[in-house]
Amino acid sequence: MAKTTKHPSQPFSAEFEQRQNELLRDPKRAAEYLMYALHDGDEIDFRLALAAVVRARTVTGVAEAAGIHRTTLHRMLNPENRPTFSSMLKVLAACDLDLVVAAAKKRRSRAGRLRPSKK
């Protein structure tokens, strides 16, 4: 009888996803991950990263903690939809995260003079 073998990438991808979920359950790691996603200011990148954090904590658990329905949370995280700011704050709080605003860092122009960061 011939043995069946799994595709070599299956164990790796499952192991990778499990490790990523472990890391993203930690609020400090999740915050770093979300800040990196925000670096370029792309809302879709941020929501995709937030979706990974939510999946790591389970959609049902986050939805319950945020006080919203699970399907509403799925819709919020869909890149084609535009969730409200208050809904996003609820999801962040349910993931043990806060939104923090900091002063923009000044960047040097090519001439060496300080100039404000691009908006």
Structure summary:
The chain has 119 residues and is mostly helical.
Key features of this structure:
mainly alpha; 6 helices; 119 residues; two-stranded antiparallel sheet
Account of the 3D structure:
By secondary structure, this protein is mainly α. The protein has one domain (13-115). It has 6 helices and 2 strands, in the order H-H-H-H-H-H-E-E. The protein has helices at 9-24, 27-38, 43-57, 59-66, 70-77, 85-94, and strands at residues 107-108, 114-115. A two-stranded antiparallel ribbon has the order 1-2.
Summarize the topology.
Blueprint: H1 9-24, H2 27-38, H3 43-57, H4 59-66, H5 70-77, H6 85-94, E1 107-108, E2 114-115
Antiparallel strand pairs: 1-2
**Biggest sheet: strand arrangement:** 1-2
Radius of gyration (Å): 19 Å
Mean pLDDT: 84
Count the helices. How many?
A: 6
In the predicted model, the low-confidence regions spanning at least 5 consecutive residues are none
Proportion of strand residues? under 5%
Largest sheet: 2 strands, antiparallel
Q: Which structural class do you get from the secondary structure elements?
A: mainly alpha
SSE ordering: HHHHHHEE
User: Using DSSP, what is the number of strands?
Assistant: 2
Could you tell me how far the N terminus lies from the C terminus, measured between alpha carbons in angstroms?
A: 65 Å
* Count of all domains: 1
Shape: globular
Helix content: 55-70%
